[in-house]
Amino acid sequence: MNRKLREKIRESLQAVVPVTAIVLLLCVTITPMPPDTLLLFLTGAGLLILGMGFFTLGADLAMIPIGEHLGTRLAKGKKVVLIALACFAIGGIITVAEPDLQVLAQQTPGVPDLTLILTVAVGVGIFLASAFLRMVLKIRLSILLLIGYAAVFLLSIFVPNEFVAVAFDAGGVTTGPITVPFIMAFGIGLAALRNDGDAESDSFGMVALCSIGPILSVLLLGILYEPSQAEYAEITMPVISTTRDLGLEFGRAFPAYAKEVFLALLPVLVFFFLFQLAFLKLRKKQLVKVLAGILYTFIGLLLFLTGVNVGFMPVGSYLGKELVALPYRWILVPIGMVIGFFIVKAEPAVLVLNKQVEEISGGAISQKTMMNGLSIGMAMSVGLSMIRILTGISIYWFLVPGYVCALLLSFAVPKIFTAIAFDSGGVASGPMTATFLLPFAMGACGALGGNILLDAFGIVAMVAMTPLVIIQGIGLLYRFKTRRAAKGPAAVQNEIIEYEGV
């Protein structure tokens, strides 16, 4: 087996095992689980481990190089209007194919799947073009974020409450395993248009702005639909009597997800080949490497999506129902926080983001620092989401203070931390959130007789919000420590921050 692939699978094993262990512990203690459901979950976990390994290797070999090549080549043309139009087209096409968005659309009642997907795609396209123009015009990211989120909260006043959480969730799931590696690498390539020292750090923030577009577009869509009249279809548990039934359950899912992943990667492949023929002219060895990377990405996403949708989604819903049925239903909050802390490590795009942050920052922001910050943020967001389900508190009581705090911090921390923080918010809310945590919240909410759209939806939005505060908090600490170091004889400016003992 390829040495790099073995390394990637080892990394994914370390990421998935903690979540699997938590579920197994719950199964043998407070939430006994039928053997067939447990078999689904364990098989799904195995596919998840293999899928993450293949995907992360594919991202290194194909998605990131393709994004950088396209961005660099467009930047060399220095035709701002043409690049902005290309950004709009690329953003829209990549988003239509995003697997996370497909999952959310299928779980959102009251709106046709294609309508929701196209609406989100237009929002991403517009804001990817805006992100490029921000880079060219050297506009501070915090200013655009402030304007964007002010527009979001203002518009939400005119939208039915049932649709607000769905809109914020759309902003979170849009930046998933296909979109994030491509857009981040695309931004690094476009940074070649500028020659100043801030160009590379300004390449971060594109994902952040792309998360605002879907929220605004879905809020506008919410004015046209009446989600309160929609009926929510519960997740059904498949009946598995034998190991043959287990194989058939996953076997039936493979063709559907193979088609979904193929359609997801096709736009990237078409863009790449068009640019290869017209501009790039990569050598044969480079071309073979990219094509091998796309194959790895295809295999990885196929295994990953099949595993989480067939194995994880039913188990998430089941655990949510069982936990709130206990006499001490408050335990939903701490258990949700523990699951959240570990589950973010299994998000494919998180590994890609952390690696690129460490490289761009020259090691000043390490992968360990990023992962610990995201884990703490995820734990907080899931805990708050469980409190919402148990109490019925409006999501506004969490989102408004959270975003106000995040936006205020953006004016107090180094620019790169703001960009990375808002990028992290979109990255953390990936397929594991959409296919495990969202069903987990839906199962708990349904068992309590709550409103699914009001109380369960919004967990993705919470997951996308808390890293904004946590990562910028790291930035604030970084600023204080470097200022203190500057007063000393060593004047160490590039001190690496690590959370010890977390």
Walk me through this protein's architecture.
Mean pLDDT is 82; it is low at 489-502. The chain has helices at residues 3-27, 35-77, 80-96, 99-107, 113-137, 141-156, 161-173, 179-190, 199-202, 206-224, 243-280, 284-324, 332-343, 348-360, 367-391, 396-409, 415-428, 431-448, 452-456, 459-487. The protein is built from 20 helices and no strands. The chain has 502 residues and is an all-alpha fold. 78% of the residues lie in helices and 0% in strands. Helix 14 runs antiparallel to helix 17 (415-428) and helix 15 (367-391) packs parallel to helix 18 (431-448).
Which structural traits does this protein have?
globular, 502 residues
Sheet with the most strands, sense and barrel status: none
Described by its quaternary structure, the protein is single chain
Helix content: over 70%
The overall pLDDT, averaged over residues, is: 82
**Computed Rg:** 22 Å
Low-pLDDT runs of 5+ residues are 489-502
Number of helices: 20
Number of strands: 0
β-strand amount: under 5%
Helix-strand category: mainly alpha
The helix/strand order is HHHHHHHHHHHHHHHHHHHH
| Through-space gap between termini | 34 Å
Q: Shape, please?
A: globular
